[in-house]
Amino acid sequence: MQAKVEFFQRDRSIHPPLHAPGYKTSVTRSPRQALLSLQNSLSEVTGPVFGHNDLGPLDNDLIRNYAKTGDPIGERIIVHGRVLDESGRPIPNTLVEFWQVNAGGRYRHKKDTYLAPIDPNFGGCGRTLSDADGRYFFRTVKPGPYPWRNYVNSWRPAHIHFSIFGSGFVQRLITQMYFEGDPLIKTCPIVNAIPDPDAIDRLIAPLDLNASVPLDTLAYRFDIVLRGQRSTMFENRLEGN
Amino acid sequence: MINKLAYIKETASQTAGPYVHIGLIPHQAGFDIFATNFGNAIAGPKTEGQRITIEGRVFDGTGTPVRDVLIETWQANAAGRYNHPADTRNKPLDPDFRGWARTGSDFETGIYTIDTIKPGIVPGRHGRPMAPHINFWIVARGINVGLNTRMYFADEREANAADPVLNLIELDVRRKTLLAEPVRRDGKIVYRFDIRLQGENETVFFDV
Q1: Which ipTM was obtained for this model?
Q2: Which of A1, A63, A155, B44 is the least crowded, having the fewest Cβ atoms under 10 Å away?
Q3: Biggest CA pair distance of chain A
């Protein structure tokens, strides 16, 4: 088997630019100097490794992992998919973390003051490891939309935040998953910072009735693609001798 | 029509948002949910190496501390080995050191802190040694794609002068943005590493 070493260069044309004036907060938080391109060394191709000891048994069940007096309010959903690289290879045993508002659109965060109520039975965060085939899943309630101060009447579409590791630290990715059919997606300045319409579509999870649990829980499918890694066909060792 | 390459595209990045803490460091967002939390004190009692604290703030283009930033660091152990299967060199692994830290800046002061050990020298490309350094990844509301940079140790003058990555930075004034100065405080060695997202003395960020 050939050793996989360097990662494919990141295709920045499918990512939002750092300076995206329509998303106002990016204006003062984006570098003005060009990023310095750096070939991969061991510092880039390695990254933290996680195991089942890092997780608890309910970490991927947001319906139960903060339940105090009963289940949280909201539509019960399963989110599932695969973590792949740009060559289509599954990325196994990688940490996938997620967080979201409750069904009313409120985060359990001391800085969130939106008037929708906190749900006493909903924490809003979880995590899991992808399996040997790169598959992951978790159970939660569908998050609600909420207003935010960008334009006076800006509303975030319903979304779930995702954090994914991959095997090398330069695969590290944070993104947001949206829901098929949500009319707020097309008006959102954070979504619209992405210049490529196909890249936006890939953040929208379709309803997956086949994966739902009849009479119990609907399912949405969200595949995540991290940067690919090239195989050594000719000598190109990162660390030399 | 010519053959198509069968690659698929990377998933687009989106900002971590103002409430990244509830997902990644919920104990800092004001509630307790997980039995084990990832944190910013990553040197255990048995970890080999010199204890250091890294402390600093992240500033936006107006010079204001960013108080909702999340920082992750990734580093080699004291022997200069990464705890990862791609690092196959014959150097000792430290069973008490994963090498990865995560923390948020303080909601009031904007100060972040990481308690770790000083990493060893790691070979760069073509075997050229890289000076001891810690890899940083920074996300926050308003940051559309996580920012990568490195912290170097200002007191490693000789190693820094030969470092292949620092030497890629043409302007000396910019190279200095990656150097953390040590201070002694209460018997601890503290490296001060401020990050400037924009403007005067803007930190060098890498497209890795």
Answers
A1: 0.97
A2: A1
A3: 61
